[in-house]
């Protein structure tokens, strides 16, 4: 007897969240999608998104991003102007887009006393609204769940078992010889037998792969690929459990007290319980800070890792299964949030050079700071009043504690 078809009403909340991002991506223009070349080579791309779930369990997609590249260490001088993104992996773009959306929502909230936000509210401390702009006069509403969906396991520690399984020989790789000058300061593309450590991202994952076979050069992004200073998505998400999902700029305005991820959703094929517990859980590498509370809205808030039965149509697995020849990673990244849609290549808007200020993404440090200054003028009528950087200093202190006690080896010069 044929089992009944699964309907949307029968889906789990995790399936609903995944589907909502699949549908949001499908609704984007064709220029945002991975392509198929004339010789039949299909492209794949990771997708990540952040949704807010209300008490009625209605799913609201807030931000999504696609991408798998980051800036080589040799080009970090481009970061000085704040107009070039250094990391455009899907997870990082989704987080940046979420922060961009929060700032726009905050602008609406402070611009009109009649505006009612479903996500943000004016904050009160002991019944009194904070008087200083830097004292975070806004917070996320209580009762909201922030869920993040990733079509691929986050790069770094949470995906090490998957990397080893993808080898023709799944035996853990030997530890790199410290005399080998190619070995990075932090374990990045090799030494996969070492688990629970901070890793750098490979510069690129855009090598072609043949159906049914993943080459060693692919999973380690080639030994001759230029190194980066960007930490893996696993490491960055682990840190967010202590600092919240807010960026340093956003946290000058919005309190982190209700801004922590509740759930990370992965396809079942991308979930390894031991890897996720080691990477993110209170019994894993974050155990030294598992019970810590720093005040001012900062504490260790571990997220759940749940799975979905749905798979992204442009995932590596789907594309490989439906390719007659080779497949490769897509070189464009897409950002979407309410009121914003961008296509990025090499950390800037498509069609622009990295040295062109007009190529700055709305998610770049420079543009986010411009948006923040607009908000500052709306809240503080006197431009001579300095911005209180206290929240940023507190957040920075929390980061340093976590790096020193739990995520040891985090290079202070990294991004």
Automatic annotation (TrEMBL):
MF terms in GO: RNA binding; tRNA-specific adenosine-37 deaminase activity
Sequence ranges assigned to domain A to I editase in this UniProt record: 63-383
Domain of life per record: Eukaryota
GO terms of biological process kind: tRNA wobble adenosine to inosine editing
Transmembrane regions listed in the UniProt entry: none
Entry-linked SMART domains: ADEAMc (SM00552)
Entries under InterPro entries matching the protein: A_deamin (IPR002466), Tad1 (IPR042935)
Matching PANTHER family: TRNA-SPECIFIC ADENOSINE DEAMINASE 1
Protein name per Swiss-Prot or TrEMBL: A to I editase domain-containing protein
Organism in which the protein naturally occurs: Lepraria neglecta
